Amino acid sequence: MSCGKPRRLEPRLSRFVRDNYLMKAFVTGATGFIGASIVRELLKDGHQVKALVRKDSNSANLKGLELEIFRGDLHNQKHLADGMADCNWVFHAAADYRLWCLDPKVMYLANVDGTRTVLEAALAAGVSRVVYTSSVGTLGNPGDGKPGSETTAVTLSDMVGHYKKSKFLAEREAEKFVDKGLGLIIVNPSTPVGPYDIKPTPTGKIIVDFLNRKMPAYLDTGLNLISVEDCARGHILAAEKGKIGEKYILGNRNLMLCEIFGLLQNLTGLQAPKIRLPYTPIVIAAYINEALSSLTGKEPLIPLTGVKMAKKIMFFDSSKAVSELGLPQTPVEEALLRAVEWFRANHYA
């Protein structure tokens, strides 16, 4: 029985791959926290992976994995298109994620211009699906404890710091490619925790500082946590089931920072910090730190962006991804424990 005209993608796939729904995926940011987990989840499913890796990248997260390394960066459209030519899916997880940088232009070059170039390459290569890793930081959020969603109103003026601004602008660039015919789905991860947080991320650094007893006090805020493996699985589910042009929040449990410390205390036996710091003197100190950093070029001890972000309770509703994609919801206690074990095993703590 004929099912009509075959999809454009079909000639690239062997009979084995077609019959078993296996794909070849091109992953940017594959050496990073989320990207490395995407790679691992793809390999678990039997998919082939081609990982974009810069010449100067730390590739420790890919050690021992059976994949193809593709050397390059985010800024050569033709080279990227050549690399994607034999791939079916693209996962664009690469981003410059920092709360402070001496030259913000570098961040916009990576996050905005890099996204545009990657998506141009994917369009030229004719891949069937692209999953773009955005952030919940680009979404609207009341900030008072009421969860934000994919449809909460938001503008560029709501973005705090260059990371959020650059990701907001990158998301607007990504949306343009849907009208150009690209099979694009946007995912907005909340706060992933777990193993392979190699840098670590700002959230990972909180865990590391807790383990090393370097956090006697804290500035309370609210976060939505998700296991990094669940977050990675959400990317694959988006490629498989997501609606083109739609956004999906990849999150799980909303917790205040003091509650997160309580969970870490239960998991490790270490005492959670008890002193909650007032906002105003900390933001003043952050301004002073930032001014000094602009002179010295060294990262501030108290990043101003991080302090400003902490003023809002960043709770989110991930029910759309759970209902439409089947996003798994591993207990965050398990994710935190895996993070603790990985940081200790790799001598961060």
Q: Percent helix among the residues? A: 40-55%
CATH fold node name of the domain at 13-199 and 225-254 and 315-333: Rossmann fold
Say which CATH homologous superfamily of the domain at 13-199 and 225-254 and 315-333 is assigned. NAD(P)-binding Rossmann-like Domain
**N/C terminus separation:** 61 Å
**H/E element string?**
HEHEEHEHEHEEHEEHEEHEHHHH
Indicate the low-confidence ranges by residue numbers: 1-19
Label the overall shape.
globular
**CATH 2nd-level architecture of the domain at 13-199 and 225-254 and 315-333:** 3-Layer(aba) Sandwich
Strand content: 5-15%
Q: Can you list the strand order of the major beta sheet? A: 3-2-1-4-5-6-10
Mean pLDDT: 91
Largest sheet: 7 strands, parallel
Provide the structure class.
alpha/beta
Radius of gyration: 20 Å
| Helix run count | 12
Q: How many beta-strand elements?
A: 12
CATH first level of the domain at 13-199 and 225-254 and 315-333:
Alpha Beta
Features:
349 residues, alpha/beta, Rossmann fold, 12 helices, 12 strands, 42% helix, disordered N terminus
What can you see in these coordinates?
- This protein has a domain at 13-199 and 225-254 and 315-333: NAD(P)-binding Rossmann-like Domain (Rossmann fold, 3-Layer(aba) Sandwich), CATH 3.40.50.
- The strands form three sheets. The protein has a seven-stranded parallel sheet with strand order 3-2-1-4-5-6-10, with helices on both faces. A three-stranded mixed sheet has the order 7-9-11.
- 42% of the residues lie in helices and 15% in strands.
- With 349 residues, it is an alpha/beta fold.
- Helix 3 (77-84) crosses helix 4 (104-125), helix 4 (104-125) runs parallel beside helix 5 (161-179) and helix 8 (257-268) packs across helix 12.
- The termini are far apart.
